[in-house]
Design brief:
Layout lengths: L6 H4 L4 H7 L4 H21 L6 E5 L5 E3 H15 L4 E6 L6 E2 L7 E9 L10 E9 L4 E2 L4 E9 L3 E6 L5 E5 L5 E5 L10 E4 L8 H12 L3 E2 L5 H10 L4 E4 L12 H14 L3 E3 L9 E2 L8 E4 L1 H12 L2
Parallel strand pairs: 3-5, 12-13, 12-14
Antiparallel strand pairs: 1-2, 3-4, 5-6, 6-8, 7-16, 8-9, 9-10, 10-11, 14-17, 15-17
Bound molecules: 2,5-anhydro-1,6-di-O-phosphono-D-glucitol (AHG) and manganese (II) ion (2 copies).
The site of one manganese (II) ion (MN) has 4 residues, from strand 5.
Amino acid sequence: MGEGISDYTKFCIDLRRHMWMAGVEMELRRLIWQIAVTGKYISAKIHESNRKLAGFKNIYGEEQLSLDRSADTILKNQLQFSGFVREYASEEQDAVVHIGEGSEKYFVTADPLDGSSLVDSNLSIGTIIGIHNGSMMGDGRNTIVAALYITYGPLITMVYSAGKGTHEFVLNREGEYVLSQENIRLKKRGYIYCLGGLRKDWTQSHLQFVEYLEAEGYTLRYSGGFVPDINQLLIKNGGVFTYPALKKNPNGKLRLLFELQPMAFLMEQAGGSATDGKKNILDIPVDDIGQRSPIYIGSHFEVEKARAFLEKA
Ligand code: AHG
Ligand code: MN
Ligand code: MN
């Protein structure tokens, strides 16, 4: 059976071997691996097809599915016993949870189940994770050391970066994450655009940016799930996702800590960029775990074009 690796993976690279070859430090390798394993448990929960509301709301006033809560519990329990995590913050928790002894190195942020509103229509959903060293507050560029997302779709895939490129793995029938795309690189310019928010709520400068993309013949792809929408830009090597400032909500909808920082890290590691329209996402200080921000994320050309339109405002 080889060196403890099943015959199947002897011919391919599995997640643990990839991180070891990439020189990721041991504790971080084990933490990423443990989080990736929770993807199997969360997927099992999803396949129990319990799509009922839990009868609770999170601090954002959003109805929680029982799946939201069980995904959060699975993650928190797995991290509690990892021995590497000092604090856990999640979209489904009211506050930061001190799950370690107080001296652990890592701080983990989670959107345990992104796209809950899509579960009933069986569209792809995901889990978004940020891993920080020293603190999860402040600007992400100084704290985030790794990020990953798991997509629950026709395949279960996991995309991660520990600062040495962005890589995709597929969960195979043997229950192993096997490398499918190493060092994903965005082109300078893509052909896809994903538009969040309602047209009637967009600001004039955002509308002008969208009209520019439409005049250039971009293809609209928007599922309503941040994870599959971002995953599409990475796998198609370009394009732009926007959830902009809205007339009534200048900070837009998406959460800086739980959704935007991890995706910005992954996108930058793949040669892309992410901004709120002016500042890079990873340079925006997090003062409050529920902080929201407008987002323009994807290949450089489109993100810089957005910045140019918004600067005219
Ligand atoms: P969550 O299910 O974790 O609350 O996230 C939903 C988010 C994100 O997945 C997506 O990009 C956005 O909501 C879609 O918002 P709209 O329904 O307003 O388009
Ligand atoms: Mn979300
Ligand atoms: Mn969520």
